[in-house]
Known about the structure:
The complex is a heterodimer. By secondary structure, chain A is α/β, with parallel strands linked by helices. Chain A contains 14 helices and eleven strands. Chain A folds into two domains: about 140 residues, Thiolase/Chalcone synthase (Peroxisomal Thiolase, Chain A, domain 1, 3-Layer(aba) Sandwich), CATH 3.40.47.10; about 220 residues, Thiolase/Chalcone synthase (Peroxisomal Thiolase, Chain A, domain 1). In chain A, strands 3-2-4-7-1-8-11-10-9 form a nine-stranded mixed sheet, sandwiched between helices. In chain A, helix 1 crosses helix 3 and helix 4 packs across helix 14. By secondary structure, chain B is mainly beta. Chain B is built from two helices and eight strands; from the N terminus they run H-H-E-E-E-E-E-E-E-E. In chain B, the strands form two sheets. In chain B, strands 6-5-4-7-8 form a five-stranded antiparallel sheet. Classes of the chains: A alpha/beta, B mainly beta.
Amino acid sequence: MREVAIIGIGQTPVGEHWTTSLRHLAFEAARNALRDANVDKVDAIYVGNMLSGEITGQEHLGALVADFLGLSGVEALKIEAACASGSAAVRVGTMAVASGMADIVLAMGVEKMTDTSGRETTAALAMAADAEYEVSQGVSFVALNALLMRRYMYEYGWQHRDFANFAVNAHTNGMNNPNAMFRFPVTPEAYERSPIISSPVGLLDASPVCDGAAAVILAPAEYARTLSPAPVLIKGSAIATAPLAIHDRPDPLVLEAAVLSAQRAYKMAGITPADVDFFELHDAFAIMAALSLEAAGFAERGKGVQMALDGEITREGRLPISTMGGLKARGHPVGATGVYQIVEAALQLRGLAGENQLARARLGMTQNIGGSGATIITHILESLA
Amino acid sequence: MEAKVAHDWRLRGQRYRLEGEVCEHCGAKIFPPRDICPHCHQPARKPQTFSGKGEVYTFSTVQSPPQGFERYVPYTVALVKLEEGPVVTAQLTDVAPQDVKIGMPVEMVTRRLYTQNDESTITYGYKFRPVLR
């Protein structure tokens, strides 16, 4: 198996792109990544996306993106794993290069969520859950997270306000990210006062519906230094699954797929959680950030919230998270999110994170969650510069 | 939500009677039915009808619903732990949201799940209400 490196990154701003279509968002991110890598051809394209069929009425994104990049003829596929589709595409691209079946791969994610009404998009997102036994009961995606948050608060004795620093930290970091959707601060008081969407989850617990695309160019690590001045090694890469429905999980408050994928990624990278300098986690909801910190081994069970309360998650803290705004402030264009996380981690590792540059950024980790935790993908990245 | 006739008919045993399975190898009670026991991974095809008694494990009151559920807002969804063991995702009914508590005893009732408009097919299924004394 060959080691794989990222030799180029690209993204579009995240937001409500009323004037830009799905295909043009994909084109812009892919072109930016190709330019950054200084390549004009690839052996394969993997496009992570969840909702194009439901919202845009467009499937078959592999061929579409290849065509609009002027690369028709190339191998190209859409990869779907709900909100984890983006890092699933990077994982598939990594396997293609590692195996020797491809040398240069474009792995990307794109999502266009704002062409339908809020209710329609809410219904589309619910397709990540169990259609017959969750969605038929009127459960929205927010409600699934609310069920977990209430039980977490009940079992461990936390109050809703104790989660505030997840949103505060994300917005603080999003302010300095030119590609973030929300570039304004949030106070703990605003968090507490935010309107309830699905009790106990409030508006400032939740990441926004938005559009965006992000892309990386992958190549064999042995050639990476000759292809790029600042390559990033994919040191660990792992996907794990858990039962689709929350009610089928032995312990709903443990993200078993996060535990498994983190352990596999640590093993592949030959590291422990203590070696990780920063963590781009899946803060689609504050409760998911807490559960992810616990499952990945950074906090004990029920103590993920304590890390936020103690300020350990800030850029100056023990384990900075959401360093460019996270899903909460950068935004959560679902099928693109996992690639945004990897692009942002690469910016930190290259020393190009601007005002948000961490003092120590040698080893970064990303974790992308599909559904309410049924597919979880962990990547560990290391600077090769 | 739009009723799909064949789809709803296939689910009639689960939705009207809480029909699941019991594993003949390890005795685990399984709902919804899935034919492979999630505990011992052996085939599990023996039908089991659940009592419909359970308690609230967690709950949330939905203010911002998916398309198709607008007319029911606000409504409360819950994870209900059945007395036989499995957990079911279901709406609570006949109870005000502020009166719901974790641990509250509930029982299954058959209610309207959704309908698209006043002229379309109505999809029925289980919901849970506080146990009547």
